[in-house]
Amino acid sequence: MKITAIESLQWEAYPRLLFVRVDTDEGITGLGETVEKVEGSRGALHGTLAPLLLGQDPRDIEGLWRFCFDNIMYHGYSGAELRALSAVEIALWDIVGKRYGIPLYQLLGGRSRDEVPIYNTCIGFGDIQDYAAWRRDDGAHAGDLARSLLADGITAMKIWPFDPFSEKSHGQYISPADIETGLTPIRAIRDAVGKAMEIGIECHFRWNRASAERIARALEPYDILFIEDPLPAVNQDEIRQLAQRTSIPVIGSELLMTRWQVRDWLAKGVSQVLMTDPLWTGGVGETRKMAAMAEAFGIPLVLHNLSGPVCQSVCLHIGCHIPNLFFVESSRALYRSYFGLLTDYAPLPVKGHFRPLEGPGLGLSLRPEALTRPDLTLQRSEGSGNAVGRRAMGDHWEREVIR
């Protein structure tokens, strides 16, 4: 079995998404995805990775990942190249699942749970404007959004009411008056639905510890589910001190790429919960390794998922497999808008949970009409590739074994 072509697909209506398709000589095509900074990822996919992967056996996922990683690490790996590699690696798992007729979670070793708990990140897209709903009048009507989410089977939500106040001081100071304003949507949610709705607070790495501690103290009476990324992930000692001084669990960080960056975070005990995104950190295999490392430290994992249908499927497969899952992130503004337009997957939660797809591989397919849309940009790399076999340790293959 050989890889014969690698394609990237982007639709103008969904500019954050880059889909990847990997074709094989057996007629099986795998589907992958990455998100954000799409132009860089597309360039890395076709310019760097495709020449390494064309002609290779797609079933050798671990070996191909390491071969590509050894080449990209020479120039700094946690950027466009790693996002592109993540998308390809996911497509390879999809191929293997289709080849042997079993879903991804079974390839990984089966289930630890039947259902995957989710929280809703309250962004807006298209007709579903959850962000505007909780931001209106400084959050005074956020309770209405909480009722709407509960009616849709969603029992946990994430908002970021303190972000606007970080801009004036560059995250160095937040006033008591701003704290009070930031608490408005949280009070509105509790007044409307009580504790029927879990509330997570996103901070988008905007604060120093002094300000984050003030925010955390103000939040403690409201039984908050978590505080996510209060400080930049490079400030590990400061984040650890914050986590030790608040009763609210701290989550970090989607900015940590691969097991090597997660290693020191876990060893230091920086946060009570780990977070990663399979589309950014290397794909399915790397995410599972990070989950296993976290499990050894007694740390649960959140799967970051604000992307497309491929990422959601991947997160649900991984989430039902690993024993130490905390939550999978999701957003109804995304899965209720374009998931079903691009693919045959249009999920809805039940009592705060999703189930993984049962079809082979990822369990979803692109709709044929998505491939004929006028806003589609498609780029294809094909042929036998440049690498003869696989060589480790950087770009020696380029100098020594090009055909």
SSE layout and pairing:
Layout: E1 3-11, E2 17-24, E3 29-35, H1 38-53, H2 61-72, H3 80-100, H4 104-107, E4 116-121, E5 124-125, E6 128-129, H5 130-135, H6 142-151, E7 156-159, H7 166-169, H8 176-193, E8 198-202, H9 209-219, E9 226-228, H10 236-245, E10 250-252, H11 258-268, E11 273-276, H12 278-281, H13 284-296, E12 301-303, H14 309-321, E13 325-330, H15 332-335, H16 339-342, E14 353-354, E15 376-382, H17 396-400
Parallel strand pairs: 4-7, 4-13, 7-8, 8-9, 9-10, 10-11, 11-12, 12-13
Antiparallel strand pairs: 1-2, 1-15, 2-3, 4-14, 5-6
Features:
alpha/beta, TIM Barrel, globular, 41% helix, disordered C terminus, 403 residues, eight-stranded parallel beta barrel, 15 strands, 17 helices, Enolase-like, domain 1, 2 domains
Question: Overview of this structure, please?
Answer:
With 403 residues, the protein is α/β, with parallel strands linked by helices. The protein folds into two domains: 3-100 and 373-400, 2-Layer Sandwich (Enolase-like, domain 1), CATH 3.30.390.10; 106-354, Enolase-like C-terminal domain (TIM Barrel, Alpha-Beta Barrel), CATH 3.20.20. The protein is 41% helix and 18% strand. The strands form three sheets. It has an eight-stranded parallel beta barrel with strand order 4-7-8-9-10-11-12-13. The radius of gyration is 21 Å and the shape is globular. The two termini are 20 Å apart.
